[in-house]
Structures are given as structure tokens and as C-alpha cells.
Design goal:
This protein is mostly beta strands and about 120 residues long. Helices cover about 10% and strands about 55% of the residues. It has helices spanning about 15-20, 70-75, and strands spanning about 5, 25, 30-35, 40-45, 45-50, 55-70, 75-80, 85-90, 95-105, 105-110, 110-115. Strands 2, 3, 4, 5, 6 and 11 form a 6-stranded antiparallel sheet that branches. A hairpin with a 2-residue loop joins strand 5 and strand 6. The longest helix has 8 residues, at about 15-20. The radius of gyration is 15 Å and the shape is globular.
Amino acid sequence: MSNTFIENGDAAYDEILAECKDGILLIGSRGGQVDPGRGVFQFNAEYGYLIEGGEKAGMVRDVSLSGEILSTLHNIALVGNDRKMSPGYCGKGGQSVPVSDGAPHLLLENATIGGRGE
């Protein structure tokens, strides 16, 4: 793992929600994993909201995103203008190194999302 981020785009947060229409807004990260040999990833969001009619609705919990890395990147439809970076650690086998990551809000099409409603 290294310092990973997605550069800002031109879309406003409200524009991304409106364009989404119906979907799920994932917020934050509770960790995840990548298998670079197979080209797949999985991460757990801190929490999420249903998007209905372009507006935030009910909360969902235990929500996660998974998929193939390159096809997921190709499925980014809009990139927000509000990137935030976060410090963190990546570790394995009792070792850890400081890393950072960040991204603006994104509209991702054809995503594999898992979770349950409250």
C-alpha cells in the first residue's frame, strides 16, 4: 500500500447526488483489502445512505464496496471538486507503515455494494 488518491474533478457534491438519482452514498473507510494478483478489491465504509430521487434518504450499515480494480476505475461517471486526504496505516503480519489516501465524492456506475438497512 502506498499513498493513493484521486484528483479533483469539476462536479459539485449536489450535482453528483442529483445525477445518481437512486443508489447508495458510501462515507469513510473501515479498512479493506486488495489482491493485486487477481486485480480485485474490497473495502468497508464507515456508514452509508440510500440515495432516492437524488437526495439522501435512510441510513444503511455494514456497507461495503468490492470489484475489479480497473473496471471500477473505468466506471467512474463524475468526479467531485471536494477531495479530502486522510492519514492512516497499512499493515500485515504485525507490521505497519504510515500511508495516506483521499478522493473527492465520485459517482460510480455498476458497482457491487453490500449492506443492510436499519
